[in-house]
């Protein structure tokens, strides 16, 4: 990161790294609480972070690591406690013999952890839903972030986007929802060039889950139900107003909301945890049944059970004909869900690469070295 860069210019992963550095530089700090510190870091950065925790422990720091990622717990923890529904369901020390299955069982309770099942890839001649040709995308200060972008999304297919944090993921996602105008090139939906803002993209059947829902998708003072109505649930009128009672009942019986354990509709969204905000924006996108879904980091801040639920929901949404562009820092997730992958590296979009014909090592090299990999 450039020392003179404005914090608001940084993407979520860069801001996370900055916060970690600030904590480590604070004078007199001897106890550090990390709350989901790796949720926006790429695999290479996670490995470095876990190594850093080991060094801090050797230097006498006390560390509390709050995370949903079991592999991180097993890698660094001396003691583990599992919380579920506000209660401690498990506690053990490393010498007791920690293992992943025990931790998963404590996290899930009597719920069954279902595997994610993806059918065989759809045929290659699916109808095109969205296309960007010769696209040039500028950053917040007019600098070129991505150039010569060519990308096609087909109905019923999931295209994954891989890249080191800050490689243009946010700018590309915003462009494909009309939040950011192209500096050159064009975006087309169903063969029609899109020239207007987000309302036109929404009317064309596009839903968008941003990389930072707490900052970008929460209106202070609004309830969960009010957020759901903003873009997802159809409004029901009653006289000259809205039939909120019927909408509340509709949300309570909504299958997507049940599957993602959405909080009660009357709760204020700005009082929710990051994971519950994520559940809200994901539920809203799924309820709308969009023709095109631009989704960033869907499993961020979610427990392993909810993560698998949303992954299965995305697969089923694609089976129903939705074209999905999936941004994720988790290569395992990208390979599990995507029919093909593209890579953002060196201001270019590389690919697509069929997931059945490549592997995480090859994609990782392209993320780091671009076309020379």
Automatic annotation (TrEMBL):
Residues 130-371 form the ABC transporter domain. Gene3D superfamilies: P-loop containing nucleotide triphosphate hydrolases (3.40.50.300). GO terms for molecular function: ATP binding. InterPro entries: ABC_carbohydrate_import_ATPase (IPR050107), ABC_transporter-like_ATP-bd (IPR003439), P-loop_NTPase (IPR027417). Keywords: ATP-binding, Nucleotide-binding, Repeat, Transport. Pfam families: ABC_tran. It comes from the Bacteria. This is ATP-binding cassette domain-containing protein. It comes from Cohnella cellulosilytica.
């Amino acid at each position: 990161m450039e020392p003179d860069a404005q914090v608001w210019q940084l993407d979520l992963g860069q801001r996370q790294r900055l916060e970690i550095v600030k904590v480590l530089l604070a004078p007199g700090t001897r106890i550090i609480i990390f709350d989901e510190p790796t949720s926006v870091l790429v695999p290479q950065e996670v490995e470095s972070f876990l190594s850093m925790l080991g060094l801090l422990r050797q230097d006498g720091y006390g560390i509390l690591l709050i995370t949903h990622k079991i592999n991180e717990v097993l890698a660094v923890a001396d003691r583990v406690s599992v919380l579920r529904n506000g209660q401690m369901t498990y506690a053990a020390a490393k010498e007791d013999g920690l293992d992943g299955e025990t931790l998963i069982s404590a996290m899930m309770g009597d719920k069954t952890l279902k595997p994610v099942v993806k059918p065989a890839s759809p045929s290659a001649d699916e109808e095109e839903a969205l296309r960007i040709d010769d696209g040039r995308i500028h950053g917040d200060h007019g600098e070129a972030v991505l150039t010569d972008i060519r990308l096609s999304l087909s109905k019923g297919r999931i295209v994954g986007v891989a890249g080191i944090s800050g490689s243009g993921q946010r700018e590309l996602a915003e462009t494909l929802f009309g939040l950011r105008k192209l500096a050159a090139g064009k975006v087309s939906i169903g063969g029609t060039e899109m020239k207007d803002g987000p309302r036109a993209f929404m009317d064309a059947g596009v839903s968008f889950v941003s990389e930072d829902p707490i900052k970008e998708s929460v209106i202070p003072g609004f309830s969960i139900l009010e957020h759901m109505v903003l873009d997802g649930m159809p409004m029901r009128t009653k006289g000259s107003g809205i039939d909120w009672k019927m909408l509340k009942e509709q949300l309570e019986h909504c299958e997507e909301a049940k599957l993602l354990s959405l909080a009660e509709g009357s709760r204020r969204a700005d009082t929710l945890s990051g994971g519950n905000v994520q559940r809200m924006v994901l539920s809203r996108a799924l309820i709308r049944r969009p023709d095109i879904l631009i989704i960033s980091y869907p499993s961020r801040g979610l427990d392993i059970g909810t993560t698998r639920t949303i992954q299965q929901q995305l697969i089923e949404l694609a089976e129903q004909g939705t074209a999905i562009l999936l941004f994720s820092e988790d290569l395992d997730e990208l390979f599990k869900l995507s029919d093909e992958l593209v890579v953002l590296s060196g201001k270019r979009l590389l690919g697509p690469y069929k997931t059945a014909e490549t592997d995480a090592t090859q994609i990782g090299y392209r993320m780091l070295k671009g076309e020379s990999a």
